Amino acid sequence: MLDAFAAIGSRRSVRGFLDTPVPEADIRRILTVASRAPSATNTQPWHVHVLTGAARQALSDEILAAHDRHETVAPEYQYYPLAWRSPYLDRRRKVGFDLYGHMQIARGDKAAMHAAHARNFSFFGAPVGMIFTIDRDMGLGAYLDLGMFMENIMVAARALGLDTCPQAAFASHHAIIRRRLALPDEAVVMCGMSLGHADPAVPANALKTEREPVEQFATFVRE
Fold first, then answer.
1. Is the peptide bond before 38 cis (omega within 30 degrees of 0)?
2. In the beta sheet, which residues pair with residue 180?
3. What are phi and psi of 193, to 5 degrees?
4. Angle, alpha carbons 133-24-208 (nearest 5°)
5. Three-state DSSP class for 7?
6. Which of 130, 163, 203, 211 could form a disulfide with 14 if both were Cys (CB 3.0 to 4.6 A apart)?
7. Mean pLDDT, the chain, as a whole number?
8. CA distance 15 to 56
9. pLDDT tens for residues 102-148?
């Protein structure tokens, strides 16, 4: 197993997986340790639907069909800013250009971009797909709690030699997900996640994103 620093440092968003099965015992082990994530007054507001086999495939097939028809709905929450600005727009553009460069997708090739985006909904070929929800009446703090829970999942997966990709794209198909998973009305579909063994032959997996140095995002107050 990787130690904490190695697991965190090697975490990345993998966009191509082998079909190697992940034992349910390993999934349960990951979720058990991830549930130690902090939450306000121990509310533990997260819920995760773990999809494998025919259930995963059925959800993927229905969303992919809707994607091909260009049928999406607005997510139930605001993920991205209403207006982009520097430096966030610069970082967003760079990772997009770098990713498409690895995938050999030319700028303006909308058909190829559409096909690349579609791979989200097959969980990038991973044998395990997850859908995360929180209750609609929870406050914004629950979003933070869910994020910490998801990060724990991704780090724990790395410790076991597995990889993941968190996917906000699923929020634009919450109507299909709600019906397919029989979600109650109070459940908000936040995002999905792929889990499995990375396929080193997939060009997108060669992407290594950059991070700002500590001096750019941290302020040390000493006096």
1. no
2. none
3. -155, 135
4. 70
5. helix
6. 163
7. 96
8. 17
9. 999 998 999 999 999 999 999 999 999 999 999 999 999 999 999 99
For residue 159, give every residue at least 6 positions away whose Cβ sits within 8 Å of its Cβ, in sequence order, or none.
1, 2, 3, 4, 7
Verify cis geometry, omega within 30 degrees of 0, for the bond prior to 87: yes
Question: How much of the chain is in helix, strand and coil states, percent to nearest 5?
Answer: 50, 15, 40
Q: What is the pLDDT of residue 31?
A: 98
Amino acid (1-letter code) at residue 62 = E
Question: Could you report the per-residue pLDDT of 67-109, keeping only the tens digit for each?
Answer: 999 998 899 999 999 999 999 999 999 999 999 999 999 989 9
- What pTM value is reported for the model? 0.95
Sort residue 179 into left (φ over 0), alpha (ψ -120 to 50) or beta. alpha
Helices (H), the chain: 4-9, 24-34, 53-68, 88-102, 110-118, 141-159, 174-180, 214-217
User: Which amino acid appears at position 203 of this protein?
Assistant: P
Report the pLDDT value the prediction gives residue 1, as an integer from 0 to 100: 83
Q: How far apart are alpha carbons 98 and 219 in whole angstroms?
A: 29
Question: Alpha-carbon distance 6 to 18, whole Å?
Answer: 22
> What pLDDT, on a 0 to 100 scale, did the predictor assign at position 80?
94
Q: 4-76+120-205 — its CATH code?
A: 3.40.109.10
| CA–CA dist 106, 111 (Å, integer) | 10
Is the predicted pLDDT of residue 5 greater than 90, yes or no? yes
Report how far apart the first and last C-alpha atoms of the chain are (Å, whole number).
40
